[in-house]
Design a protein that fits this description.
Helix content is 43%, strand content 20%. It is globular. The longest helix has 23 residues, at 188-210. Strands 9-1-10-3-6-11 form a 6-stranded mixed β-sheet, with helices on one face. The chain has a 5-stranded mixed β-sheet with strand order 5-4-7-2-8, with no helix packed on it. The protein is α+β, with helices and mostly antiparallel strands. The protein has 13 helices and 11 strands.
């Protein structure tokens, strides 16, 4: 299958950010056609049984849901809920347990109790809910055998891509619909088409995210070239709230302070603590824009001991205090 026009290898090469991502070999597929009527609320996580029809269980699983009709809310245990609308793809890079529904205050139902075999050997199905407005999801996964790849440590817990923003959105949606309708044990081509499309959409979502800030681009590339710095980046992104110092990070990766600081600064172009501060404040800006979490909780969650210290750091970078920035962002 040729790459869709919105993400060709030539474009990837020109972009530069996808060069290393293209080297990761993904398997996967769409394994569930789910239709929910409001009110509804479920918990979900991709399991070995979901991967089995497509591939031996991969060491690393990326879960995703494409909303083809309606809307839903999604939440991970430690994060505020996000809204996902028609035409949006939501990706869970670390395959965390997540809750989705029309109303997340309801007691969630375990999705494994709802799944029914598909008709004529097709993909599994769910029809569930209280009889109100309908939401239609196509659920799938991508897998690879590189769980230690630092790329995944650099990604947030959830990525959202608005397919309608892509120039070929009609082609994307029709491909998903066609594939879902024709999936069966005898239709390996449909599995392949949907798996490839899912991979390309994931690449697009990752590229948009990585390209948002220059330090993040440099970190991604450096993590692939240098496993020691990649490990340090994984520690920073995976344990953002810890009381990191340059000395402590150096010990964790087995270098002296001076050797680590020099190596990190040479590859990332900023010192370790400057990079840590930028990541923390970037995460805070997203929380401020996309949630109503109180500012003291945001400060604590990203590693600041006090709201005052967080506010000073935020103002230095963004020019205004966190509360003002939140109002300007419309939250």
């Amino acid at each position: 299958m040729a790459d869709p026009p919105f993400l060709t290898r030539r474009q990837a090469s020109m972009n530069g950010n996808l060069d290393l991502l293209l080297d990761i070999h993904f398997t996967g597929g769409v394994f569930l056609d789910a239709r929910f009527s409001a009110p509804w609320c479920i918990t979900a996580q991709v399991g070995p049984e979901d991967c089995a029809p497509f591939t031996p269980q991969p060491r690393h699983i990326i879960a995703y849901h494409l909303v083809t009709k309606g809307r839903m809310r999604l939440a991970l245990s430690n994060d505020e809920p996000i809204s996902v609308e028609t035409g949006q793809l939501v990706v869970i890079p670390k395959n965390d347990v997540h809750t989705i529904g029309s109303d997340l205050t309801l007691s969630p139902t375990d999705v494994t109790n709802l799944i029914e075999p598909g008709d004529n050997g097709g993909i599994a199905q769910i029809v569930h809910g209280g009889g109100g407005d309908w939401t239609h999801l196509l659920c799938g996964f991508l897998g690879n055998d590189q769980p230690g790849n630092a790329l995944f440590a650099l990604l947030p817990s959830v990525l959202k891509l608005d397919v309608t923003d892509v120039a070929t959105s009609a082609w994307i949606e029709s491909s998903f619909r066609f594939g879902a309708l024709t999936l069966s044990g005898q239709s390996s081509e449909s599995h392949r088409v949907l798996a490839r499309l899912s991979e390309l959409l994931f690449m697009d979502a990752v590229t948009r995210y990585i390209s948002a800030t220059q330090p993040r681009q440099l970190a991604w590339r450096a993590s692939q070239r240098d496993p020691i710095i990649g490990r340090a980046l994984g520690l920073i992104h995976g344990r953002i709230a810890e009381d990191w110092t340059t000395e402590r990070l150096a010990r964790e990766v087995g270098l002296s302070r001076s050797a680590f600081a020099d190596r990190f600064s040479r590859l990332i172009k900023v010192p370790p603590m400057a990079y840590l501060a930028s990541v923390r404040l970037e995460k805070a800006s997203v929380k401020l824009r996309e949630s109503a979490v109180p500012i003291p909780r945001i400060a604590s969650a990203i590693g600041y001991e006090s709201e005052a210290a967080f506010s000073r750091a935020f103002r230095r970078v963004y020019g205004v205090p966190p509360g003002t920035w939140r109002k300007q962002a419309g939250t």
